[in-house]
Amino acid sequence: MELNLKDKVAIVTGTGSQIGFGRGIALMLAKEGCHVISVDMDLAGAKQTAEDVKKLGRKALAFKVDITNRTDIDTVVSATLKEFGKIDILVNCAGKASGLRPFVTMEPEQWDMDIDTNLKGTINFTRAVLPHMLTKQYGKIVNFSTHAAHQPTGLAGSAAYVAAKAGTVMFSKTVAGEVGHEGININIIAPGPGNTNFHKASGNDPAMAKIVETLAEAGKTTTPEDIAHAVAFLVSDVSSKLSGQILEVSAPMGPRR
Ligand SMILES: NC(=O)c1ccc[n+]([C@@H]2O[C@H](COP(=O)([O-])OP(=O)(O)OC[C@H]3O[C@@H](n4cnc5c(N)ncnc54)[C@H](O)[C@@H]3O)[C@@H](O)[C@H]2O)c1
After folding, report:
1. Cβ atoms < 10 Å from Cβ of 100
2. Is the Cβ atom of 191 under 6 angstroms away from ligand 1?
3. pLDDT of 206
4. Handedness of CA 193, 196, 198, 204 (dihedral sign)
5. Where are the domains of the chain?
6. Are 2 and 202 in contact (CB under 8 A)?
7. Is 16 in the pocket of ligand 1 (CB under 6 A)?
8. Which residue owns the Cα nearest ligand 1 atom 35?
9. How far apart are the C-alpha atoms of 17 and 54, rounded to whole Å?
10. Distance 21 CA to ligand 1 centre (A)
């Protein structure tokens, strides 16, 4: 299958973690021919990923951005348009959770962080690129939810994070409907557990990190490559009739027969 991504310009957020999904996406898109704008609040990591994109023969820029800060985001969008004259692809992969704890014990700063990063960060970046994509009548956006956000009982201990990720789904579906006639596709990836930095970065959560490490040893985690393959498909024209869809990328989670 030919994805025809040569010389597409892709902004990918969350590329700083060197074992994360965002870096895997950046490198996969570069292998497929994209130039990559590597965005993270971890500048050293974003730069490292950009350097590795360049080693694949593509152009790359790196920016330190907090996706909760709309000024940071506007700077990236302007600099990308100045350098490349277009933005074909946005992958809103950056995300973080404040840690597992019952909702009744959460502090307001914790649920603000969950919602500001995962839901509002995605809204901020989507809003910043859409005017350009509408002018071009072309664009591909992939947003990140989680497997846990569409379970009947969510994920105990993660109420605000799961709410933000479920909100991301309906935000994406709604905007996908609004811009669907104008050459823009917006889809959602819902990863299963991945052995990235996510569980270690998510506050005081060593137990969850340990569970994911054990799953990884059994080959039951979602890898950056698993995610990157799905993203490459969604940002190509091969999937141009898919919009507002959730692609769950996960090892089987149910009981064995
Ligand atoms: N790993 C999992 O088990 C899992 C499961 C479901 C969904 N997800 C989602 O997948 C996405 C990628 O996570 P990952 O597993 O690669 O984690 P990771 O921690 O390895 O990478 C996440 C990256 O996002 C960056 N980031 C966090 N907050 C940011 C902000 N405000 N501004 C800019 N950058 C920020 C971090 O610096 C980090 O580089 C996230 O949206 C996460 O919610 C992960």
Report:
1. 17
2. yes
3. 73
4. positive
5. 9-249
6. no
7. yes
8. 94
9. 18
10. 7
Q: Is the pLDDT of residue 255 over 80?
A: no
Give the C-alpha distances (Å, rounded to integers) separating 65 from 60, 158, 192: 15, 25, 26
- Point out the ligand 1 atom lying closest to the alpha carbon of residue 15: 39
Task: Please identify, by atom number, the ligand 1 atom nearest to the C-alpha of residue 45.
Answer: 39
Residue nearest to atom 26 of ligand 1 (CA): 94
Decide if 9 contacts 35 (C-beta within 8 A): yes
* The model's pTM: 0.97
C-alpha to C-alpha distance for 116 and 111, rounded to whole angstroms: 8
Q: Is the CB of 93 under 6 A from ligand 1?
A: yes
pLDDT computed for residue 204 by the predictor: 58
Residue 117 near ligand 1, beta carbon < 6 Å: yes
The candidate with the shortest Cα–Cα distance to 142, out of 185, 182, 178, 181, is 185
Determine if ligand 1 sits within 6 Å of the CB of residue 224: no
Please give the torsion angle defined by the CA atoms of residues 237, 243, 246 and 248, in that order, rounded to the nearest 10 degrees.
-10
Active site residues: 161
Please report the pLDDT score of residue 50 as a whole number. 99
198 CA distance to ligand 1 middle (Å): 6
Strand-pair partners of 190: 248
What fold is seen in the domain 9-249? Rossmann fold (3.40.50)
pLDDT at position 203? 64
Tokens of 157: 């201990």
